[in-house]
Amino acid sequence: MNVPPPTAAPLTGPLTVTGTAVSLAGIHKSFGPHVALRGVSLDVRPGEFVALLGPSGCGKTTLLRALSGLDRIDAGTISIDGTDVSRVPVDKRDIGMVFQSYSLFPHLTAAQNVEFGLRMRKVDAARRAVRVQEALDMVGLGDRGGRYAHELSGGQQQRVALARALVTRPRVLLLDEPLSALDAKVRVKLREQIRRIQRDLGITTVFVTHDQEEALAVADRVAVMHDGVIEQIGTPEELYRRPVSPFVADFVGLSNVLEGVARGAEIEVCGRVLPVLGPPVEGDVSVYVRPEDVAFTLDSGGVDATVVASSFLGSLRRTSVRLADGTIVAVQHDASDRREPDEAVRLRFAGYPVVVRPR
Ligand code: ATP
After folding, report:
1. Is residue 232 scored above 50 in pLDDT?
2. 60 CB less than 6 Å from ligand 1?
């Protein structure tokens, strides 16, 4: 007798899934004395692509494993589509997963790997064949179904892993650093492909990465994690332009940290007055300024500095300069504007500080 699949999605018809809301509330998880998650709450909207971003050890994988059901949580609630699944085992949560290491079964072909989940769900052979071909076509490997893992590149193996995760039409897709073993060009191509497929399917997705460029490039929203908590969640633009803390300002993009003195809605930095965004501050502050918000100027009112080094970055250049007090400042500017070490320059501040913190 056929066992009904645990998935709510039908097993025939077009390969689409409707978006599902995922909600994590007050998640705590410890490993012995080590607290890995300290009351994490996160709401992922139906069809949304959320990246968990943070340095090694901040708890990203622990949060993903908690959501998948691979690990039990100590406290908190996990719900999918409004149903509490906190105590539902991993194979009943209807979640597709792709991990960092290539996890294909080496003794099975690509098609057999993709077919595996359908066999487990006792889908009949004819329907399995159609579904496997659909899934392989979706990842652009429709003609490679007969290959074994060792006959596929790393990027192709991860695409097979993605097809395998999606073939059962899960409600949620979890990706744990799926690109980190790949070289830079393949990473960029594959992340774009993942994003396209995710959008086409409308599948709610949580993606773990420690690579800020990757997170900002693909996600609808990024949750920046730090020491077992989500420090900020927002769109890539919100995180970059309005980081809530020095940690986020440092982790997402580059920042110059300058000393200043705040007086309400203004701060004096290097003898120049800059506006403050957000609540007024008073007294000695650290001021975080993005490299593209500092520019060279010929104006005699500019801040004197000396060029230390300049790096060519394709369409732009990043030049580090030393101020009179020894502070090093990065300036991002047009690549055609070449600066030489020891050259005397003047700077102006062209934008708002992204963070202002009492010192
Ligand atoms: P990375 O980017 O390095 O994978 P991460 O942000 O995913 O890091 P986690 O793997 O979630 O971090 O780990 C969070 C913390 O919990 C770390 O300090 C880690 O050492 C600890 N930890 C994770 N799994 C276990 C475990 N099974 N036993 C003991 N400690 C663990």
Report:
1. yes
2. yes
Is residue 163 over pLDDT 60? yes
Instruction: Please report which confidence band the pLDDT of residue 265 belongs to, taking 50, 70 and 90 as the band edges.
Output: confident
Q: Whose CA is nearest to atom 19 of ligand 1?
A: 57
**How many whole angstroms separate alpha carbon 15 and alpha carbon 120?**
19
Residue 273: closest CA among 261, 283, 255, 284: 261
22-94+170-241: which CATH topology?
A: Rossmann fold (3.40.50)
Structure confidence by residue, pLDDT tens digits, 95-122? 999 988 768 999 999 999 999 999 998 9
Locate tokens 């978006």: which residue? 19
Closest CA to 344 of 323, 325, 330: 323
Chain position carrying tokens 């990043």: 318
* Segment holding 73, helix H or strand E: none
CA angle 13, 194, 248 (to 5 degrees): 135
Going by the DSSP 8-state scheme, the letter that residue 314 receives in this structure is S
Q: Going by CA atoms, what residue is nearest to atom 3 of ligand 1?
A: 56
| Cα–Cα dist 349/35, whole Å | 42
Q: What is the pTM for the complete model shown?
A: 0.87
Instruction: Return the CATH number of the domain spanning residue range 255-358.
Output: 2.40.50.140
